[in-house]
Amino acid sequence: MKTIYLVRHGETLFNVHHKIQGACDSPLTELGKKQAQLVHNYFKNKFIHFDAAFCSTQQRASDTLEIITQNKIQYSRIKNLCEKDHGQYEGQDEYMLPWRRGYSRSNPAFESDEHVTYRMICAMDEILSQTKEGEKILVVGHGTALRLFTKHINPEFSAYSNCEIVQMVAKNNVLTYQNCFTPALELVN
After folding, report:
1. Own/partner long-range contacts of 125-131 (Cβ < 8 Å, ≥24 apart)
2. Which of 54, 72, 84, 136 is the 20 to 30 Å CA partner of 94?
3. What is the pLDDT of residues 26-63, one digit of tens each?
4. Contact 179, 186 (CB under 8 A)
5. What is the enclosing helix (H) or strand (E) of 179?
């Protein structure tokens, strides 16, 4: 059995300003760095040590991973873990997204949810093929991409907050949802 911890990146400047950040990137805020540090502390206090670590190619994910691991583990960046590409809506205010204004989620102007889910399945298949039984695996990614993948495994799952952790296990490389928790929640309350 493998244990996989999926973690959304810490708060970014675009999160604070409610900007759409899919393919584009923005830096972690000081709060985002503190959230990642709390995730590090959580894993340390639970004596969880990672055998492998992966993240998207976007800086906010790799910065979060480096804080969580304290730069003590090599990691791989996987393009298929990247956030949903919102096309012409990138960098705009979140309310500009068509579904926020009552229009369909299906739009040729941005990547479909189905394609994001497919990419995430491919990324997780790659991760599972590169890891061994008994290993603990850290995967740092993005809110929409992780949500869509997690809903694929557990249809009742709703959303990821910044630095929320979802734990899954893989038996014979078949993933099962276990639970979710947010060590960084105390920073936003």
Report:
1. 125/173, 126/78, 126/80, 127/4, 127/52, 127/54, 127/78, 128/2, 128/170, 128/173, 128/175, 129/173, 130/52, 130/76, 131/2, 131/51, 131/52
2. 54
3. 999 999 999 999 999 999 999 999 999 999 999 999 99
4. no
5. strand 174-181
**Mean pLDDT over residues 69-74, rounded?**
97
Q: Are 147 and 157 in contact (CB under 8 A)?
A: yes
Q: Which DSSP string do the residues of 103-142 spell out, in sequence order?
A: --S--TTS--HHHHHHHHHHHHHHHHHHS-TT-EEEEEE-
Q: What is the pLDDT of residues 165-175, one digit of tens each?
A: 999 999 998 99
* Amino acid identity, position 3: T
CA–CA gap between residue 5 and residue 164 (Å, rounded)? 10
The predicted-structure confidence for 82-111, as pLDDT tens digits, reads as follows 999 988 888 888 877 776 666 666 666 789
Structural contact between residues 91 and 62, judged by C-beta atoms closer than 8 angstroms: no
Q: What is the rounded distance in angstroms from the CA atom of residue 20 to the CA atom of residue 27?
A: 13
Residues 92 and 40: beta-carbon distance below 8 Å: no
What predicted TM-score, i.e. pTM, was given to this entire model?
A: 0.92
Q: Distance between CA 184 and CA 94 in Å, rounded?
A: 23
Residues carrying an active site annotation: 9, 83
Q: Give the H or E element holding residue 56.
A: none
Q: Which CATH superfamily is domain 2-188 in?
A: Phosphoglycerate mutase-like (3.40.50.1240)
